[in-house]
UniProtKB/TrEMBL annotation, chain A:
Descriptive protein name: Response regulatory domain-containing protein
Compartment(s): Nucleus
Matches recorded under SMART domains: REC (SM00448)
A GO biological-process term: phosphorelay signal transduction system
The entry's keywords: Nucleus, Phosphoprotein, Transcription, Transcription regulation, Two-component regulatory system
Record field: transmembrane: none
Pfam families: Response_reg (PF00072)
A single GO cellular-component term on record: nucleus
From TrEMBL, chain B:
Domain HPt stretches: 24-119
UniProt GO molecular function: histidine phosphotransfer kinase activity; protein histidine kinase binding
Role noted for this protein: Functions as a two-component phosphorelay mediators between cytokinin sensor histidine kinases and response regulators (B-type ARRs). Plays an important role in propagating cytokinin signal transduction.
The entry's keywords: Cytokinin signaling pathway, Phosphoprotein, Two-component regulatory system
Entry protein name: Histidine-containing phosphotransfer protein
Phosphohistidine carried by residues: 65
Domain of life of the organism encoding this protein: Eukaryota
Comment field on protein domains: Histidine-containing phosphotransfer domain (HPt) contains an active histidine that mediates the phosphotransfer.
UniProt record, GO biological process: cytokinin-activated signaling pathway; phosphorelay signal transduction system
Length: 205, 138
């Protein structure tokens, strides 16, 4: 069969500031994620394949799906035009993409803003500057939809519900591409993380 | 980093150093360059906005929000302090306070830039020393 490719989590990062994009990209790469960065909410929707107009009921509207599967969207809150909150709403309103976890980042600690985002379905709200430690929480969010899909396959050995406290174990598990029929295989070496640093990242400019 | 940078950069700068590795050996320098490019633009915008009277405090506050954000992310503690003060003056509608604070901010920013330039130069020459030493060992 050849080399087994480990499926890497692919994160779509949205921020209008070039500096912040550079930061979040490196943070995500360091957390062994593949990253695509875009500078606006509308570009994010474009990347996902969602048109601007709301087309959730239109059967013809599942436009070209992107070549990559996005496992998580992380977006700045304050952006001109479409805010991170607006983007969150659009994603959660979309039948095709509502299962993608969304994380909001903001440099301002506004409790009303935070609860509004969480109520709208954001998984996490990070205060900037985002730290490496914050990103370790993301892995469990990205795992849930994957594990749920895996559990629907007959050969899967995975329990559909993983509790938060097991996230340290989840961190070192890797899943194969969903298209593969191979079973998942737990990776127990911490050195794996280092070797996974050589990621191919795509950056949208 | 030691005494040379003390007070100018906080623990956030160390977080940046954690992100640097063999695959990304110049990350800190790159992100510093990005910060100074960004902040130069913001300083320019604020300068121009401060020349227009009466002052548009909302606009000034918005610029400073961005400036504070990136200054925080790079660990520029003194610059960040000035940003916070500036924003308070904006909210109070205190033009004189804004002008004064902005002068201080520009000074701190310029000092930080010099210090970081020196820091990266020292790092680069340290690396050259190490390489020389290794070569001499062969």
């Amino acid at each position: 069969m050849g080399v087994v490719t480990e499926s890497q989590f692919h994160v779509l990062a949205v921020d209008d500031s070039p500096f912040d994009r550079k930061m979040i990209e490196r943070l995500l790469q360091k957390s062994s994620c593949q990253v695509t960065t875009v500078d606006s909410g509308s570009k994010a929707l474009e990347f996902l394949g969602l048109r601007e107009s709301n087309e959730s009921d239109d059967p013809n509207a599942t436009s070209t799906s992107p070549e990559v599967e996005i496992n998580l969207i992380i977006t700045d809150y304050c952006m001109p035009g479409m805010t991170g909150y607006d983007l969150l709403k659009r994603v959660k309103e979309s039948a095709a993409f509502r299962s993608i976890p969304v994380v909001i980042m903001s440099s301002e600690n506004v409790p009303a803003r935070i609860s509004r985002c969480l109520e709208e379905g954001a998984e996490e709200f990070f205060l900037k500057p985002v730290k490496l430690a914050d990103l370790t929480k993301l892995k469990s969010h990205m795992m849930k939809p994957k594990l749920k899909k895996e559990s629907e396959k007959p050969a899967a050995e995975v329990k559909p519900e993983i509790e938060e406290k097991e996230s340290s174990v989840i961190e070192i598990l890797t899943l194969h591409q969903e298209l593969d029929s191979e079973q998942q295989e737990p990776v127990l070496s911490n050195n794996k993380r280092k070797s996974m640093e050589e990621v191919i990242s795509t950056t949208d400019r | 980093m030691g005494k040379f940078m003390q007070g100018y950069l906080d623990e956030q700068f160390m977080e940046l150093e954690e992100l640097q590795d063999d695959a990304n050996p110049n990350f800190v320098e790159e992100v510093a360059a990005s910060y100074f490019k960004d902040s130069a633009r913001l300083i320019n915008n604020i300068d121009q906005a401060l020349r227009r009277g009466p002052l548009d405090f909302n606009r000034l506050d918005s610029y400073m929000h961005q400036f504070k954000g990136s200054s925080t992310s790079i660990g520029a503690s003194k610059v960040k302090t000035e940003c916070t003060m500036f924003r308070e003056y904006c909210r109070a509608g205190n033009a004189e306070g804004c002008l004064r604070t902005f002068q201080e901010l520009k000074k701190e920013h310029a000092t930080l830039r010099k210090k970081l330039e020196h820091y990266f130069q020292v790092q680069a020459s340290d690396q050259l020393c190490v390489i020389n030493q290794l070569q001499n060992m062969c």
